[in-house]
Specification:
Radius of gyration of chain A: 24 Å
Largest sheet of chain A: 3 strands, antiparallel
Largest interface: A-B, 46 and 48 residues
Oligomer: homodimer
Strand order of the largest sheet of chain A: 1-3-2
Order of helices and strands of chain A: HHEHHEEHH
Number of strands of chain A: 3
DNA sequence: AAAGAATAATTGACACTTGAAGTACTTGGC
DNA sequence: GCCAAGTACTTCAAGTGTCAATTATTCTTT
């Protein structure tokens, strides 16, 4: 740690650059781990709430949320895109919801390969009940931040999202 | 943004409060969705890289990462805590890694209920190879942000983490 | 020292997720 | 019209995750 001043002008710029670089590496990893921790924590709380209050799961809630904004229904592939999961996954979740009468698969007469998935009346009713509670949970979890801080976060994450989304679809 | 100083003290508190409230709700949900999207995106990329380059998975990598920092090994329950997953899960992941010779369970003579899990020499070698690449991926993914932005994010997420972590263990 | 409570790890049931392989249908060039 | 290529969805295996119940061991209390 004790520096030999006689070599200072030789070593210093090099060490300095390395140090800055090292800090940056450390910082990126630290940021990533912290982001992951926050997201997982919130996600787990939401999941637990959905389970305790409505005996349902986050993926099911997510699928229904997508359908609620699409009165004409969505194709399985559209659900897959919007939920950012693979197609095989959507099949399983839709199967479960359909079995409980919350969604229906309707065949599209113009293209018999596709299903249009829609919320049933019961599905809509149930979703609306869940959605309003869900919003309260989220608001509560983020209540520790001021609006200014939330705005900053939205801004910074928006930038990040833009960068990490590149190199996905050519 | 532009403030009208002449009306500042006269603004109707009622409407203003409602508007602020509504914006806040919207903002919290928006922040949550954006955070989720960013995290999922990065997580998926890291997972894909781990799969493509090393035929391994994120949970396995995570477990090995915990062990690498603990030369004396960790108990299953400690792994469970640090990885923020349930115990049953750790059992399965450890089983897999042990079968491949990357990890060993050693019985603790002072308490025969516990296992101390350690990295084998082969496990250490493999982890170090993965870790350096992993760091590069993360740095690359966050390279679009300046150090200043990263610092801001770390700061803000730190605050958030603190708030959402409360009410967990009394 | 024996009964009972607490702790460490495992197991089994179920849900979600991916990726690859398979089926059914549509489209476009010949 | 027909066949190849592409698209939409399903199925299956393997891994990850939860929770609840079980086993084995240790600690506590009397």
């Amino acid at each position: 740690m004790a520096k030999d001043k006689s070599t200072l002008k030789l070593v210093e710029p090099h060490v300095d650059a390395e140090t800055r670089l090292h800090d940056d590496h450390h910082l990126s990893v630290r940021l990533w781990l912290r982001m992951l921790a926050c997201t997982n924590r919130v996600e787990n709380l939401v999941r637990q709430n959905l389970q305790a209050r409505f005996q349902t799961t986050l993926p099911r809630f997510d699928l229904m949320a997508q359908l609620e904004r699409a009165p004409d229904g969505l194709k399985m592939s559209e659900l897959s895109q919007r939920m950012m999961v693979t197609g095989g996954n959507v099949t399983g979740i839709t199967d479960g919801l359909e079995k409980e009468g919350l969604v229906v698969r309707e065949v599209d007469p113009s293209d018999r390969r596709v299903f249009r998935v829609k919320l049933t009346a019961e599905g809509q009713r149930q979703f609306r009940r869940m959605a309003s509670e869900h919003e309260q949970w989220v608001i509560g979890l983020f209540a520790g931040l001021s609006m200014r801080q939330k705005n900053q976060l939205v801004e910074l994450l928006g930038e990040l999202k833009q960068h990490v989304s590149q190199g996905c679809e050519p």
